[in-house]
Amino acid sequence: MDMWMKIASAAILGFMLWRLWPAANHWMKHGPKGSKKDWQTAIIALAAVVGFVILLIMMVR
Amino acid sequence: MDNYGQVVTGRESALATNKVLRNTYILLSMSLIFSAAVSMAVGISQGMALVSMIAAIVLVWFVLPKFENSAAGIAVVFAFTGLMGLSIGPMLAYYLAIPGGSNIVMTALGGTGVIFLGLSGYALTTKKDFSFMGGFLFVGLMVVFGAALLNIFLSIPALSLAVSGGVILLMSGLILFDTSRIINGGETNYIRATVGLYLNIHNLFVHLLHLLSVFTGGDD
Questions:
Q1: Residue B152, H or E segment
Q2: What ipTM was assigned to the predicted interfaces of this complex?
Q3: Is A23 in the same domain as A40?
């Protein structure tokens, strides 16, 4: 990658970080908190995604 | 009489939610087809792809908020998704040119579809409110953006792999989060909802493609 493209990509990511910070801060401070059961429900779904991605990797290898 | 009023209000709310959901999925499917067509039809350089991405970011952050409550917002969504499609054109051309690349691209495409439909179906059938994941997802996004920023200059293959894995997990979480916000009335604007879900699918596809190509030796 050319240096100017690296700098432009870094500037985009830096700008996204700067724009994302207020939303992240808001959700951390004022967002609803989940119970252990809520997190279990989410983790089951995300674990299924991880398993599916591993399956896809095995398929293409 | 009070009970009747509550039933009517509840029904109206459910109808409004169904309308937002239906409009979101219609606009999302149309914009995905448009984006895919643009990415395959128009061949541009890497530099132009970066310019397209910058233009897409400008549209979504500075132009869309002004038009999100009017019909003009739909045109902005198509302009945004067209530019996003344009920005992945060179990457797709690269993967399709390597041996076995078309297989990787089709697997990533199918995998993205299965993950999106599976997670959306999960959120729709359970009707669970996943808004408690907001803090975790936004902080996670900041961490992966920070790591990706560092890796632009460090170019560490393992970190690139970790970023892709992290983005896949975060986009999966965001599909649950965004869909449950539509179902539970947290998001009432279908134009905003479409852009959110489109970004989740776009990032999921790009990073799944990267992950699959790394494990097949097609990328570093």
A1: helix B134-154
A2: 0.92
A3: no
